[in-house]
């Protein structure tokens, strides 16, 4: 074979490749019908005439939708080109919310909105980034000392737990295995995940989040290596100084409250080991559990409202993290907005939606279906400092004295068999 034949074969192959790659349509004929048919038209009808259906679809009222749209419009608007008109920001936000709220596949959303699949992917990415960029500085701002004091006051007044900076918990968020990731995201429960570590205030709102820890990390290692854990160790969170326990003169550092997945320390309060509990330790565990379950409710509410968590989230790690960020700030926005409403007019967390007391579970628990948020394995380590032990004992004694409440014994021993 001479050089001319080799060149001819190469040119022929290139031409065949170009023919295969050539797009059949710049815009598919079905998608040209978008102005007259498509799910966004149904949504506009819901927006104007059926606000209850609009809430089911977007998890927000029309007024709340307009607020969010105003904040993100600049970041999700594209310019028209000579070839086609861009999708308006209103429709782009509809598509982004559809993905988060329903967890539908890209193919399903593409068909419903008469939009190409690659366009849907780009819209979802753009909307998620815009939500975090514009809502986070307002609704998930890192607390300063004044805000920490508000949180402490809220836990004392609403949940009878003094000197509490918030409840903390970690969850595995189930994801589809990222390409070429090996076992990096494969956790001990035998599925792929990233880690969502979060704290919350007394009103069921996130206060700090740390997203993206590898699923394979050990339970104890995730918190210590997280941005929150490092900030606590390095005293970079502007936490308030030690405060006297209400009604007595004993100074007590302010701490977060967590479960057995966390190690007891001078910034983290956890329950006593369940073996050999006496009366006052059982009451302490109940009082701590009552405060700690706020974060459990926050996660539960978010999962019940954003069905993207009902299955493995598909995408590269960056897009998965952006998806989680978007749901976190939307949760805070909706929860903050409805706190200004009368309880009977709230839709995102109406009365009875979260746990009201130990013997009455919230409505979110009845939603059914699987969940892509999974608890961590409990931490069996009991090593802690002498100072941390004294702090916990001080609170334990306080709950039996000046800080006792009349109903604590009955509820602490609810369903405990008599000896």
Automatic annotation (TrEMBL):
GO terms for molecular function: hydrolase activity; metal ion binding; nuclease activity. It holds the Pfam family DDE_Tnp_4. Residues 168-332 form the DDE Tnp4 domain. Keywords: Hydrolase, Metal-binding, Nuclease, Nucleus. It comes from the Eukaryota. It is found in: Nucleus. GO terms for cellular component: nucleus. Its cofactor is a divalent metal cation. InterPro entries: HARBI1-like, HARBI1_dom. Belongs to the HARBI1 family. This is Putative nuclease HARBI1. The lineage of its organism: Eukaryota, Metazoa, Ecdysozoa, Arthropoda, Hexapoda.
């Amino acid at each position: 074979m001479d050089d001319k034949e080799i060149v001819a074969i190469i040119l022929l192959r290139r031409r065949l490749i170009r023919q295969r790659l050539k797009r059949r349509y710049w815009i598919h004929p079905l998608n040209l019908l978008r102005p007259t048919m498509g799910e966004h038209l149904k949504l506009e009808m819901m927006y104007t005439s059926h606000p209850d259906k609009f809430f089911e679809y977007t998890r927000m009222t029309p007024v709340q939708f307009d607020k969010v749209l105003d904040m993100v419009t600049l970041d999700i608007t594209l310019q028209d080109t000579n070839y086609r008109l861009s999708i308006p920001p209103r429709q782009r936000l509809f598509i982004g919310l559809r993905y988060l709220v329903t967890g539908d596949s890209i193919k399903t959303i593409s068909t419903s909105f008469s939009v190409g699949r690659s366009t849907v992917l780009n819209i979802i990415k753009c909307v998620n980034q815009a939500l975090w960029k514009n809502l986070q500085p307002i609704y998930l701002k890192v607390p300063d000392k004044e805000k920490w004091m508000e949180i402490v006051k809220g836990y004392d007044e609403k949940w009878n737990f003094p000197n509490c900076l918030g409840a903390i918990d970690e969850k595995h968020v189930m994801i589809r295995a990222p390409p070429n990731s090996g076992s990096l995201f494969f956790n001990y429960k035998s599925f792929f995940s990233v880690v969502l570590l979060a704290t919350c205030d007394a009103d069921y709102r996130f206060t700090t989040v740390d997203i993206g820890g590898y699923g394979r990390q050990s339970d104890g290692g995730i918190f210590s290596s997280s941005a929150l854990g490092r900030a606590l160790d390095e005293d970079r969170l502007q936490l308030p100084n030690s405060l006297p326990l209400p009604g007595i003169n004993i100074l007590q550092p302010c701490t977060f409250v967590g479960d057995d997945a966390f190690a007891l320390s001078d910034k983290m309060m956890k329950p006593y080991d369940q073996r050999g509990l006496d009366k006052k330790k059982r009451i302490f565990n109940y009082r701590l559990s009552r405060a700690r379950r706020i974060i459990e409710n926050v996660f539960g509410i978010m999962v019940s409202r954003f069905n993207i968590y009902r299955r493995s989230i598909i995408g590269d790690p960056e897009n998965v993290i952006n998806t989680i960020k978007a749901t976190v700030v939307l949760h805070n926005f909706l929860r903050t907005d409805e706190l200004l409403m009368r309880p009977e007019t709230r839709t995102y967390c109406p009365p009875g939606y979260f746990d009201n007391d130990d013997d009455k579970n919230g409505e979110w628990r009845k939603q059914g279906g699987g969940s892509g948020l999974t608890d961590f394995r409990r931490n069996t380590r009991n090593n802690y400092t002498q100072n941390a032990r004294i702090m916990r004992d001080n609170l334990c004694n306080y709950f039996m004295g000046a800080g006792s409440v009349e109903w604590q014994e009955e509820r602490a021993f609810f369903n405990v068999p008599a000896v």
